[in-house]
Amino acid sequence: MKSDNLEKPIPDEKVHSRVPVPSPELLTSALSHSEQIKDKVEQCATDLSSVNVVLRQEIVDDVHAEEVGRAILLSEKVEAKVQECAEQLAIVNDALAEEIDERQNLDRALSTSNAALLESKAQEEQSMHRSLHDAVTGLPNLPLFNDRLNLALTQTKRHKRRLAVMFIDLDKFKSINDTHGHDVGDDVLKEVARRLQGVIREGDTVCRRSGDEFLLLMLDVNDENSAVKLAVKIVDNIGQANGIGGTNLTVRPSVGIALYPEHGQSPMELLKNADFAMYAAKQRAEGYAIFNPLADKMNQRTN
Question: Is the overall model pTM greater than 0.85, yes or no?
């Protein structure tokens, strides 16, 4: 199933809340100051042009010394203005350099923050996945299966459809662990999980319940035969030998089937009755059984 109450997106952490933000007022002030200096420099150029005119006239026409004196005094004032502009321009340049450094620091901080955020999200997703999936097989675990079963029952009841729950147990799996070791046993479980995923339809769910027990949720079951056909596929596929552990190991599954609404109205009731049917399946050559309310509850659980 695509949607799970347990698999909710985790809100983004405000990782860059502590990142320093450059002040736009500083840049605006520096640029405004630069414009003022530009105006002063243009005024100085105009004044110097006037001085040069007077001095050239003095050379050509022998202008009165008093006029020349005023021109020289004006020239000195212009020089002072130019010096003042140079000092102010240096202040503006320092302010702009500081702003550039702050912007670069911000870019580096944001880059680091984004990398940390991505890493944090990846870790959260991995943690969420681990909490909802079996560590050995990678299949959904029991809490996730129960969540999907609850959701499926709600939708199935609303739309008056049917579904099936299957309880799958691997016969004599303990002997594999005892004879070949738990590493080989884990490899067998992984192969069983792979084969189960290969026979179910999109939207159905298979989970590892515990040990050598698996559960399967089959949606939109047309009739009893639809569930039986899938159970036969499961028995045939899992029952084929595999070359794990340097030898051909074979495991035989027993599949118990409980149908909604015939065999239960709640998740607990369906799982319990599928469990009863699974123990009935152990007695049958076919390897599967549909829950029989008159007989299955009398079965005693044996290993």
Answer: no
